[in-house]
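Section: protein folds

Sequence with per-residue tokens
===
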Amino acid sequence: LYVNGGDDIENEESKFINMVYNYDWSSTSLGPIDTWDPVLKHVMITYVSILKAKHPDG
């Protein structure tokens, strides 16, 4: 997908998703993603799928 003079939206979405999944969550009070409650994981997945590149620093 291309908009605004050729910006690659899918590439931006991939960058955002990678940023979220590669963040060192173990350094936070949430801990590593693999230890999260399923509800928290679902909320995070929903957040990522809705926002993606719209708010990359979100």
Notes: The two ends are 22 Å apart (CA to CA). Helices lie at 9-22, 38-51. Residues 2-54 form one domain. The chain has a mean pLDDT of 75.
